[in-house]
Write a structure and sequence with these properties.
single chain, binds guanosine-5'-triphosphate, alpha/beta, 416 residues, globular, binds magnesium ion
């Protein structure tokens, strides 16, 4: 079991300093003031201090348990008794699971394996979209039948709206589709829907290093219960299967159960995890996890965050603080922020996504519980109204129920 010292290299517990022993040369005392990293002055930027140099409380952050503990025990070493108990770093079990080469025998090739994976994912998407196909999709196909009058087109528009495409977007789809000549109504509407998803960057999402020598950093945010932690577990499993080294940061410190939930997913996915005690500062958890990920040469760091309502300014500030702490550790780091949107919340969820986008600039959306809704039309509204690409869709609760979003495949699964 290995522990991380704040800002330092991984340490074995037996090398941790005894509470009463003399300080070791390599274990400089930590600052007695509340800190979110190895150098509080460095991490707590000027905007956090009042004119007389006192830490500012304008952002409304209470010192976390971690900060209080460190303030009370300046010589404390993270991981020593009674201070902080970081999660054990679960050593990954070596290389990625072997590819099922036996399935093709001597004829195995990466291309064939890739084609088989795509085929499997398409089948999974079709199964996951079953409710939408038999709900929204079927209603659309009925509305297409025998179309001719304005009222018939209105019915198409109405169907799009009830499928969560959104009123404004539905109107413009119908308006444009009506102008398309020499194609059937279905072809015209389908072409319009495809056009909404076209023009985005193609290809599945892949982790890209946040900076040179650093892992990709994915911050997962959203309102309560949308599927953030589950998505992280699935994404970790996916990345591990690709042979990537994954570190999870348990930055939802609101409930102990949230940390445990992520721990279970980490074990299931064979990923590493860094966690602090309940109520610890989420930014400090991410900071330590980033340190751990860099030290371990991880490919991707995924941070879980507590569910929050976009209307709670102090909680939204907490996300901004996480971003700032990452930036202090890795200036100019490219951080991915994925918004997890519960497809069953429809247009409400879209409004929440917009508020999050304004606060923390989202780079991707994961649409979860697509298997539980009959109105998958929200995908089009996200891409057009929010302007943030859907990266993955969740079609169930199991580890392999996360699919990379494939625009063409999605439209095909809706109509074919
Ligand atoms: N059917 C289905 N259920 C899902 C999917 N994703 C997540 N869930 C379920 O949704 C519930 C909430 O998931 P969590 O991952 O705990 O959600 P969360 O956003 O982390 O919740 P908080 O941390 O409390 O904000 C769980 O029961 C999950 O199994 C999905 O794609 N399909
Ligand atoms: Mg959670």
């Amino acid at each position: 079991m290995r522990f991380f010292r704040r800002g330092g290299q991984p340490q074995e517990p037996d090398s941790a300093q005894e509470p009463n022993s003399a300080p070791q040369p390599d274990s400089a005392p930590l600052p007695a003031q509340p800190a979110v990293g190895p150098d509080a002055d460095d991490l707590i930027g000027d905007e956090w201090r009042t004119a007389d140099g006192e830490p500012s409380d304008t952002l409304g952050f209470e010192p976390s348990e971690l900060e209080q503990d460190l303030a009370e025990s300046p010589d404390a070493v993270l991981g020593s008794d009674g201070v902080i108990e970081p999660a054990p770093i679960i050593a990954p079990a070596g290389p990625a699971p072997a590819q099922p080469q036996w399935a093709w025998g001597a004829e195995w090739s990466a291309e064939k394996a890739d084609a088989a994976r795509r085929e499997r994912e398409h089948e999974q998407l079709e199964a996951g979209l079953e409710k939408t196909r038999s709900g929204f999709g079927a209603r659309l196909r009925t509305a297409f039948g025998g179309i001719g009058t304005d009222a018939d087109w209105e019915e198409v528009e109405e169907t799009l709206i009830t499928g969560d495409v959104g009123a404004h977007l539905s109107m413009s789809i119908v308006e444009r589709a009506r102008k398309r000549r020499e194609v059937t109504v279905e072809q015209a509407v389908r072409a319009e829907l495809e056009a909404i998803l076209a023009g985005r960057d193609e290809g599945p999402w892949e982790p890209r290093p946040a900076a040179e020598g650093a892992p990709a950093i994915v911050l997962v945010v959203g309102v309560n219960g949308t599927g953030k932690t589950t998505t992280i577990g699935k994404l970790a499993a996916r990345e591990r299967a690709l042979g990537h080294r994954v570190v999870l940061a348990a930055a939802d410190t609101f409930r102990a159960a949230a940390i445990d939930q992520l721990r279970i997913w980490a074990q299931r996915a064979d990923a590493e995890i860094v966690a602090h005690a309940q109520n610890a500062d989420p930014a400090a958890v991410v900071y330590d996890a980033l340190d751990a990920a860099i030290a371990r040469r991880a490919d991707v760091l995924i941070a879980d965050t507590a569910g929050r309502l976009h209307t709670k300014a102090n909680l939204m500030d907490e996300l901004t603080k996480i971003r700032r702490v990452i930036d202090k550790r890795l200036p100019g780091a490219r951080v991915e922020t994925f918004f997890v949107l519960d497809a069953t919340t429809g247009q409400n969820g879209l409004a929440q996504a917009k508020a999050f986008h304004e606060a923390v600039k989202l780079s991707g959306v994961v649409l979860t519980k697509l298997d539980s809704t009959a109105k998958g039309g929200i995908v089009f509204a996200i891409e057009r109204d929010l302007g943030v690409p859907v990266r993955f869709v969740g079609v169930g609760e199991q580890a392999d129920d996360l699919l990379p979003f494939d625009p063409a495949g999605f439209v095909a699964a809706l109509f074919d």
